[in-house]
Amino acid sequence: MLGLLGDEWTLLVMQQSLLGATRFGDFKARLPVSNSVMTARLRALTDEGLLDRREYHTRPSRFEYPPTTRGRSLWPVLVSIWEWERRWVPDHATPLPRMQHLECGDECSPVVTCRACGSDVGAEDVVAHWGPSGSWSRSVPPSSTRRRSESAAAGLFPQTMSVMGNRWGFALLVAGLVGIRRFSDFQSQLGAPPGSVADRLSILTANEVFDAADNRYRPTEKGYALFAVVITALQWAQRWYEAPDGPAVVVEHPSCGHRFTAVLTCDRCRRALRGTTISVVSTPESD
Question: What range(s) does the HTH hxlR-type domain occupy (predicted)?
Fold first, then answer.
């Protein structure tokens, strides 16, 4: 999951795909990306089964790239990133649009709830432990994904990439959410080089995702708000990249005694959101 989604262009292409772009020209018109980068991302997303490749014109051959079921099911991750960036990242060149829930007609924010009991859930309300296929060594990709390029400065995810765009950044965030606090513990648990741990902790702290005090690193309120991104990404990954020997991570909700499955609900009407019932409110916020 990190190897695929830890790339800003991949996320932006999928975001535009779910907003209706299907053809090469559609993506190019919406994203400040070179032809070679776009071609590479479309090929990768097709190979991974997130986009389909269909010929719509012959002589010359031209293709469109509609999202597959696997690709469409990314919407909770993208919506969670959208909401986090909109709420917590003030330095967008253009303010991010708000969401509207078409079923109730209100502007809304997604809320993470428990499928079993319906209660609102945050990172501190669940307990996670390794499943049969899980370990830090198996959960960190073997190589780092590309850093966010300057050409993407107008992108929608400027700070998300500081976490998801680096294998150690995301791992450190998850480790912080489950209670690891000391530099030495981050290093020993993740098996990360000291320089990489120091670099990513400094970036997470500079972005106010972590707070550093008393030689400990704790997630801030902004950091804990990334729980929605982490849990939806985890659920997507475990649905589509199922390990033969069982899940990598098992998440429990002690309050209700069930395994935790996250459902995004509308904060106004409390009904479960669906990708097809979320619309963009383009009017800029007055505040």
Answer: 1-93
Query: Which of these, 245, 281, 227, lies nearest to 113 by C-alpha position?
Result: 227
| Identical topology for domains 1-72 and 114-263 | yes
Q: How far apart are CA 14 and CA 4, in angstroms?
A: 11
Helix H, strand E, coil C: the string for the chain is CHHHHCCHHHHHHHHHHHCCCCEHHHHHHHCCCCHHHHHHHHHHHHHCCCECCEEEECCCCEEECCECHHHHCCHHHHHHHHHHHHHHCCCCCCCCCEEEECCCCCEECEEEEECCCCCECCHHHCEEEECCCCCHHHHCCCCCCCCCCHHHCCCCCCCHHHHHCCHHHHHHHHHHHCCCCCHHHHHHHHCCCHHHHHHHHHHHHHCCCEEEECCEEEECHHHHCCHHHHHHHHHHHHHHCCCCCCCCEEEEECCCCEECCEEEEECCCCCECCHHHEEEECCCCCC
Domain-by-domain residue ranges, the chain?
1-72, 114-263
Find, among 48, 50, 28, the residue nearest to 39 by Cα.
28
pTM of the model: 0.90
- pLDDT given for residue 268 in this prediction: 96
Structure tokens at 268: 């106004």
Is the per-residue pLDDT at 150 higher than 80?
Answer: no
CB 240 within 8 A of CB 70: yes
Q: Which CATH class is domain 114-263?
A: mainly alpha
Q: List pLDDT tens digits, range 216-265.
A: 999 999 999 999 999 999 999 999 998 899 999 999 999 999 999 999 99
Residues pairing with 67 in the sheet: 51
